[in-house]
């Protein structure tokens, strides 16, 4: 029986190098117009492949949904800031001492060595209130639109 003397399989790098040499040889033997057409086709194909890969990335990673959420969240914060500045802060002036708004409320701490520390507790309360208001609105929208029932199709 005769043994088959098959060549060992080429590695992918060797295969790519061989294909590149073949393409270079074919391009050298073509007219300049045909060469330009081939190069244009290859570039177009590569560009299309890159765009398709990018679009797949956007779909797989839900980047567009994250972007939409970021934009809507930023706008929601603007609405909440307007509500707290126009409604909550003026109402707190009625209740808090010195007729100061909530963000102007401070505690002044004096130390033994005549040092003074000013604690802006009103600003902290204001920030926590804004956060809770944003969270409540997002939760309400989430429940009203029944977004908790949506799930990704597998």
Question: What would your notes on this structure say?
Answer:
This protein has 154 residues and is mainly alpha-helical. The protein has two domains: 15-61; 63-149, Non-ribosomal Peptide Synthetase Peptidyl Carrier Protein, Chain A, CATH 1.10.1200. It has four helices and two strands; from the N terminus they run H-H-H-E-E-H. A two-stranded antiparallel sheet has the order 1-2. Helix 3 crosses helix 4 (121-144). The mean pLDDT is 82.
Summarize the entry for a quick read.
The chain has helices at residues 12-28, 32-61, 63-95, 121-144; strands at 107-110, 116-119.
Notable characteristics:
154 residues; mainly alpha; Non-ribosomal Peptide Synthetase Peptidyl Carrier Protein, Chain A; 2 domains; two-stranded antiparallel ribbon; 4 helices; 5% strand
């Amino acid at each position: 029986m005769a043994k088959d003397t098959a060549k060992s399989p080429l590695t992918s790098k060797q295969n790519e190098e061989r294909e590149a040499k073949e393409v270079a040889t074919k391009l050298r033997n073509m007219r300049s117009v045909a060469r330009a057409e081939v190069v244009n086709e290859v570039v177009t194909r590569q560009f299309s492949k890159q765009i398709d890969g990018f679009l797949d990335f956007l779909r797989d990673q839900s980047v567009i949904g994250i972007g939409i959420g970021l934009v809507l969240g930023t706008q929601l914060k603007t609405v909440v800031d307007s509500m707290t500045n126009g409604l909550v802060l003026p109402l707190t002036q009625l209740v808090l001492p010195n007729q100061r708004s909530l963000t102007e409320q401070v505690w002044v701490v004096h130390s033994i060595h005549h040092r003074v520390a000013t604690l802006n507790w009103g600003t902290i309360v204001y920030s926590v209130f804004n956060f809770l208001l944003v969270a409540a609105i997002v939760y309400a929208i989430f429940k009203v639109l029944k977004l908790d029932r949506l799930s990704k199709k597998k």
